[in-house]
Design brief:
Elements lengths: L1 H25 L4 E2 L2 E2 H32 L3 H28 L2 H18 L1 H16 L7 E4 L2 E8 L3 E7 L9 E9 L8 E3 L8 E9 L5 H32 L12 E6 L4 E9 L4 H17 L14
Antiparallel strand pairs: 1-2, 3-4, 3-7, 4-5, 5-6, 8-10, 9-10
Length: 316
């Protein structure tokens, strides 16, 4: 639909240009508020020609980019960049046609821009923040991020604000959507830390699942059993993802040993022992994977009551 609408706008633009030519050739008698009717009609048609041409170019270019780019994130960014570029070009063209002073218009825009810098500092910082987001990519549409005290999935990055679908928050927990919308000024990326959980190059995070057992438990048996259950469930997927992580790690000066299979760490507490299962998972699958692993591990532990014991009648 975008491309036919764009072509129609371009055709209308040519029709307006043709109308300007006809007005200039044949003239129109009469005056309105001291201005010649022919002059006003020609100026109006010229402005309409610019508006239709700008809108048509925007629609055609956007449709072409959408067809060649299946990635929704890239299409979202292209839409914003095209909208800003075509909008600025259209405004400058309209002002130039109306005033007949192209150099004066550009100089005036420079003076106005300088004044706006002082009058509208926060929106200007947000626009600079948007440019920073487009260039440096701390996050993009579809990422799960935490910015200051807000956490959620990025659904839109406009010129001035970033919109998140909140997760966690004060209503729910366990990384579940709350249904609330968070709007943040883009300027926040210039002064605050941004945590990206699903960055395009490596959209995975490490999670931990904790199970408490009694001191009487056969620790070697229980840790091997726990690690084996996790390995059967997500071990192969994790190994494939670790390969991508090691490739990225090799491009940095950081030297880090990374396990490619789930591991179990043992932490001693006052009245029990904690098994902390460490594994790699996509953030949006974190709670589902945790629930399934917890169920399988508890079932396996309960099947071995002589070797795996749980704390009883103790402060937990």
């Amino acid at each position: 639909m975008s491309r036919p609408l764009g072509y129609l706008s371009v055709v209308l633009s040519f029709c307006c240009v043709l109308g300007v030519s006809l007005v200039d050739r044949f003239g129109v008698d009469g005056t309105v508020a001291g201005f010649g009717l022919g002059y006003l009609l020609g100026e109006g048609l010229s402005v309409l020609a610019i508006v239709f041409a700008a809108y048509g170019c925007y629609r055609i270019l956007l449709a072409a980019f959408d067809r060649r780019t299946p990635d929704k994130r890239r299409r979202h960014d292209a839409r914003n960049i095209l909208r800003l570029t075509v909008g600025i070009a259209g405004i400058v063209s309209v002002l130039g046609v109306v005033t007949q002073q192209w150099v004066g218009v550009l100089f005036s825009l420079g003076v106005v821009g300088f004044a706006v810098t002082f009058a509208l500092q926060q929106p200007l910082f947000s626009l600079i923040g948007w440019l920073y987001i487009m260039v440096k990519r701390p996050y993009q549409v579809g990422d799960r991020v935490a910015i200051e005290d807000s956490k959620g999935d990025v659904v839109e990055v406009s010129f001035l604000v970033t919109t998140l679908w909140e997760i966690n928050g004060g209503l729910v927990s366990s990384n579940q959507p709350s249904g609330r919308i968070i709007t943040l000024p883009n300027s926040v990326v210039l002064s605050s830390h941004v945590m990206n959980y699903t960055r395009e190059e490596f959209p995975f995070v490490w999670n931990e699942l904790t199970v408490q057992v009694a001191y009487e438990t056969d620790l070697d048996y229980a840790t091997d059993l726990m690690a084996g259950i996790a390995d059967d469930y997500i071990g192969d997927e994790m190994a494939a993802r670790i390969g991508r992580y090691r490739e990225r790690l090799s491009e940095t000066p950081v030297e880090l040993e990374v396990q490619d299979r789930p591991t179990v760490n043992i932490v001693q507490q006052e009245s029990w022992v904690e098994f902390r299962l460490r594994y790699l998972v996509h953030p949006r699958r974190g709670q589902r994977v945790r629930n399934e692993l917890y169920k399988r591990i508890l079932d396996a532990f309960n099947d071995e009551p002589d070797r795996v014991k749980f704390p009883v009648s103790r402060n937990r």
